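>> received
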Amino acid sequence: MLKENSNFVKVAPLSDVAEGKPRAVRVEGHSIALFQHEGAVYATDNQCPHMGYPLVRGRVRKGVLSCDWHGWSYDMEGGGCFTGGCDDLATFPVEVRNGDIYIDVASGGKKRDDAHFLLLKEGLLSTDNWTLSKAIAIMLAKGVSEEETLKLMVKHMGRHISTDRNAFEGGRKLARMMNGVTVAHMYQPEDRLIPLMMAADGASGRLGDRPDRQPLPPPVDWQKLEDWIRVFTADKEWEGIEKCLITARRLGGHDEKIIPLFFQCAVEPFFLNHYRNLIDLTHLAELLEQFGWELAGELVCNLGAKILGQGRGRPGELHREAIEKLEEIDHIFDELPQDASTENSVAYDEDKFSAALVSGDLDEVFDAVTEMLTAGVPINTLATTMVMMAGDRMARTPVNMSPGWWDLQDEMEIASTVRKVLRYGGTKVAAKALYHAAWRFFNNRWLNIRHQSLTASRTSTTPVDIDENTSLSEILDGIESVRIQEIGRRTREYLNSGCSAERLMSEIGLCILKDDNGDDLLSSIRMVSEEWKTCEAHPARNQLIVGLARWATDIRRNAGNDSAVQTAHRFARGETATELYE
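>> returned
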């Protein structure tokens, strides 16, 4: 007879669990594996902590339980894992009374309260996406602090990039993390696993070792350090830049000057062909803004220095000509109207400006930017035109030849980044950044996409009566079936009929994420969503969504993220693989 208030519950007759014949029972919603081995009875979680395979299908030798799928092994009594670093197996107290097996579920269970963080650390070091997915799935399912999880990722990424990555690689990984986190927050928790896993993958990598960087000895002040940073930027000496940044931080009182200085350096004419500098620096500024110097300081000083001090190669003829043009007009930036960053009533011919951007003539491209700036057209207005122009070109580029998807995405991303440069670097710096964005359009002259008016209405005068749910399903099916020739038309019809653009963007994003593992589409989901809201009044903004749908369809990788994500979610809920078929 069981004691009153005992946690033990009867789960099976002992005769049903013979030696070598384990049995699974369900207790309080969980699948529990029962074993009789060498005269003793054991109860463990039936889910292998590695990938959820039912352990009743495993084998037992001398108290060691091994999973048949990947061979991970566990101590049947204590639950300790011999194979993984932190994937211990849940075990439960067992009593045999009057020929029946009783187990105490409440007193057993997981062996580590910090399993989520240990898994995350293991995944960050190993770069194993399954381990990262498990850790994040547990976080989402168990209500573990997302803030603490992200802090761990930032700290790890700082050391990883500072010891193991150059400017280009570090910038790409940082973009993956920041875009992944931002996109994740566009969705409800149940749909966040893929973008958060991508973010964690961006933060992951091995940790090297290097001596602590010591500040310069006195006497030194901020003005000297700023001058030296500019010198080392011109000379491509990233270690000198990092040394100056560390010294500035140790002096104190100058932290708020560092990010603006980064952007001032990054818009120098010799960086004209390195547009990713501005994109990467905005991600660095966003990281610092979200997590602060204590967590992000190492990454900001190291990656910022590597970005500014990277090698640049020898410019070609047109590149040299463009650099000279920027040097010649440097005086205009000190003469810009004070309200160049805000909306005003200046007359603006958007079609004239957009036509100049894609004229293929360097003088015409740069002169158009100069004309608009000196006339007082707001920087944000010019950035909007550039974003819309890139989106329109993406929505219309031919697909029976090389469509230049990545080049068009670059146009949109650097144009969108101008807004952030304005925020973090100020009016003068953002004005210079416009030329870097314009240079991308000039470089893409090979695409030869016919210019089309941006101001003309894109809505059909003849209303189309469609069912929103049916139309949305057809669009998603078109993306999944890679029917690029029809996806643009179907997306336009959906939008022109007045159906919900926000719903379409959300569903397209989920469709892309479950089938792709690339960085570019992750950033595009974020960018299109942000620019759609920013450019609310623009007549061409539907082209942003049309372009995204066409691009996502044409480069679909079918990476099978959805299957892995569903497995991770089941794992976090404690479901075993056999339950898929029950």
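>> The longest strand covers residues 30-37.
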